[in-house]
Amino acid sequence: FEAPGYGPAHLVDGGGNPYGLEVDLNGARPVLVSGPLPVKLDSASYPIITGDQAVNAALTSSSPPAADSVPPVNVQLTGAELVYTLVAAGDHSFYEPAFLFSGSFQVAGVQYVKRVLVPAVDPSQRN
C-alpha cells in the first residue's frame, strides 16, 4: 500500500506475518500465483493512536501469561513499522492500519522472532 504521508506499507496476517500476492517463477515463466490480487481501493481517514499508546499496547500484549512450567523469555522489541491487515466484515472486507513491533530472542540456541500487532485506528472508531 502507498500510505499518504508515510510511503509504502506491507500487508500482514493476524500474526504479523507477511501476507499478500505470491508469484512463483520457473525462470521467467510464472508457475503459481496465489493470494489477493491488487485492486483499486477506496480510502478513508480515521484518527489513529499515538506512538506512546502503540508502544504501551505492544509492551502490555507482548507479556506472556504466567506459567509455572515455562521459564520467562526476555524479548526486546527493536523494530516497528506501519502495516495493514485484512478485516472481514460480512459481505465485504477492508484493510486496517496497524503497528507491527518485532524483536528476536533465543531458546536453547535457536533464534526466534516475536511479532506484536497493535491496531492503529483509535479504539473509539472501532466497533
Could you provide a short overview of the structure?
With 127 residues, the chain is mainly β. It has one helix spanning 51-61; strands at residues 2-3, 7-8, 10-12, 22-26, 29-34, 76-89, 92-107, 110-119. Strand 6 (76-89) and strand 7 form a beta hairpin.
Characterization of the model:
With 127 residues, the chain is mainly beta. Helices cover 9% and strands 46% of the residues. The protein has one helix and eight strands, in the order βββββαβββ. The strands form three sheets. It has a four-stranded mixed sheet. It has a two-stranded antiparallel ribbon with strand order 1-2. Strands 4-5 form a two-stranded antiparallel sheet. A hairpin with a 3-residue loop joins strand 1 and strand 2. It is globular, with a radius of gyration of 18 Å. The protein starts with a strand and ends in an 8-residue tail after the last strand.
